[in-house]
From TrEMBL:
<comment type="similarity">
    <text>Belongs to the ArsC family.</text>
</comment>
<dbReference type="Pfam" id="PF03960">
    <property type="entry name" value="ArsC"/>
</dbReference>
<dbReference type="GO" id="GO:0008794">
    <property type="term" value="F:arsenate reductase (glutaredoxin) activity"/>
</dbReference>
<dbReference type="InterPro" id="IPR006659">
    <property type="entry name" value="Arsenate_reductase"/>
</dbReference>
<dbReference type="InterPro" id="IPR036249">
    <property type="entry name" value="Thioredoxin-like_sf"/>
</dbReference>
<protein>
    <submittedName>
        <fullName>Arsenate reductase family protein</fullName>
    </submittedName>
</protein>
<keyword id="KW-0560">Oxidoreductase</keyword>
<dbReference type="InterPro" id="IPR006660">
    <property type="entry name" value="Arsenate_reductase-like"/>
</dbReference>
Length: 120
């Protein structure tokens, strides 16, 4: 299991605390330092079953600079969204846990973290 985190994020810290309390084995990826490639983002999106705009933090200043709220959200713009996430990793929703069964979850709640734990 791998968890993508921003250490400054309280949701990330909470997810790590729960994983530790449950004795889970996991790898931490500080995705702002070890930025995922477009291919890695596409893989995680496939595992999540989501589109890139569904994991984009549109309230971030860079999202406003890029005008993301005005971008189309359809198959023709999927690559543009993925490229933006790779160039500006702060836009990626966090934390994301990739479970051992090949699935992934956006682990912003205790329930989502427990769901990932049940899959590993």
């Amino acid at each position: 299991m791998e968890i993508w985190i921003n250490p400054a994020c309280s949701k990330c810290r909470g997810a790590l605390e729960l994983l530790d309390a449950e004795g889970a084995e996991y790898t931490v990826r500080r995705y702002l330092e070890e930025v995922p490639s477009e291919e890695e983002i596409r893989e995680v999106l496939d595992r999540l079953g989501l589109e890139p705009w569904e994991i984009t933090r549109t309230g971030e200043p860079v999202a406003k600079e890029l005008g993301l709220n005005d971008w189309a959200r359809d198959e023709s713009t999927r690559g543009k969204w993925t490229a933006a996430l790779a160039r500006h990793p702060r836009l990626i929703q966090r934390p994301i846990i990739t479970a051992d069964d090949g699935s992934a979850v956006v682990a912003r709640t205790e329930e989502a973290v427990r769901d990932a734990l049940s899959r590993s």
